[in-house]
From TrEMBL:
Family indicated by similarity: Belongs to the gamma-glutamylcyclotransferase family.
InterPro entries linked to this entry: AIG2-like (IPR045038), GGCT-like_sf (IPR036568)
PANTHER family attached to this UniProt entry: AIG2-LIKE PROTEIN D (PTHR31544)
Protein name, UniProt field: Uncharacterized protein
Organism per entry: Lentinus brumalis
Length: 177
């Protein structure tokens, strides 16, 4: 979610990430959805069963398969201190769980990404580091999944809004704050 933006990731871990390598990645089907929290402006990843329950409680039909993806960033070589800071950032509403992701490109150094490509509130979100929306973008080279840890929402479903979270909207409206 919010951590897929390199500038936000650097801000959370408190350094430029010279030892970290990143690439955009997709999480497909399990867990399958990012939702916007009602009291906050950040997403929550849910397992399939919980997202179905959330959407059904609002009278929504099941999401089409091509919308059952979560965009994110695969980060390699986090140390224990980096992970601790990420755990603090995510808080007790989330648990860290192992999932499979599909890298969408080569790994690059976190420190080589622009220092701040977060636009101001009046600037259009034109960040070059935007992960494609769905699995149709998986090339032959990216069809191999990798086991990784990610943060899964563990709080009550009543705190969530049954809608898809939009990264571009987040960058445009909130990331500059």
């Amino acid at each position: 979610g919010t951590l897929l933006h390199p500038s936000i990731l650097r801000r959370v871990i408190g350094h430029e990430g010279d030892h970290l390598r990143i690439c955009p990645a997709l999480l497909l089907v399990k867990p399958d959805i990012g939702d916007t929290e009602q009291r906050a402006d950040y997403p929550a990843v849910l397992p399939d069963s919980r997202s179905r329950e959330l959407f059904a409680s609002a009278g929504h039909a099941e999401l089409p398969r091509d919308q059952r993806t979560v965009r994110g960033t695969f980060v390699q070589d986090l140390n224990d201190h980096d992970t601790h800071l990420l755990d603090l950032f995510e808080g007790n509403e989330y648990t860290r769980e192992i999932v499979e992701v599909y890298p969408l490109g080569p790994l690059t150094s976190l420190s080589s990404t622009p220092l701040s490509s977060i636009p101001s509130s009046s600037t259009a979100a034109t960040n070059s580091y935007v992960v494609p929306l769905d699995g149709r973008t998986l090339s032959a080279s990216s069809r191999r999944s990798l086991p990784v840890e990610t943060y899964i929402y563990a709080g009550p479903l009543t705190d969530l809004s049954p809608e898809l979270w939009c990264y571009e909207d987040f960058v445009r409206e909130f990331a500059w704050k």
